Amino acid sequence: AEMAAARLSGTENRLVSLPLSRIRVIMKSSPEVSSINQDALFLTAKATELFVQYLATYSYKHGRGKEKNALTYTDLSHTAEECETFQFLADILPKKILASKYLKMLEKEKRDGEVREDDDEGEEEEDEDE
């Protein structure tokens, strides 16, 4: 394993842009993972890199940043919201909203929550689906 690690570390800079040490830390943070094969580590890093490139390219091509020759956060969040492939990222890349609008939303949720306590539980489940 040490030979493989030494061999890989010499070429990793050319083959993958993401730091393997960081990828290893993230992988080890999962309770199901006890040991990480060097090849699995490299492939995970490479797949992550390709995914990020795909997300960025797609967002740039379909976003408004193209006009400014730049990729913007709005382009990324729009992709996460609109493209089915990337919808699992919607929580990670939420649409930007003004703090004042967010505070109003929280107030409304709080008021609705107080009203909802008196209602039947069936209606609560319907609200969660929205």
What does this structure look like?
The protein is built from seven helices and no strands. With 130 residues, it is mainly α. It has a domain of 79 residues: Histone, subunit A (Orthogonal Bundle). Helix 2 crosses helix 3 and helix 3 crosses helix 5. It is flat, with a radius of gyration of 22 Å. The N and C termini lie far apart (50 Å).
Summarize the structure.
This protein is mainly α and 130 residues long. It has helices spanning 2-15, 20-28, 38-62, 65-68, 73-82, 99-116, 121-129. It has a domain at 35-113: Histone, subunit A (Orthogonal Bundle), CATH 1.10.20.10.
- Strand segment count: 0
CATH class of the domain at 35-113: Mainly Alpha
Order of helices and strands: HHHHHHH
Q: Given the C-alpha coordinates, what overall shape results?
A: flat
Share in helix: 55-70%
Major β-sheet, in short? none
What is the CATH third-level topology name of the domain at 35-113? Histone, subunit A
- Unreliable sequence segments: 118-130
Q: State mean pLDDT (0 to 100 scale).
A: 80
The proportion of residues in beta strands is under 5%
What is the number of helical segments per DSSP (H or I, 4+ residues)? 7
| Separation of the first and last Cα atoms | 50 Å
Structural class: mainly alpha
Region (Disordered): 109-130
GO biological process, one term: DNA-templated DNA replication
Pfam families: CBFD_NFYB_HMF
Domain Transcription factor CBF/NF-Y/archaeal histone: 17-78
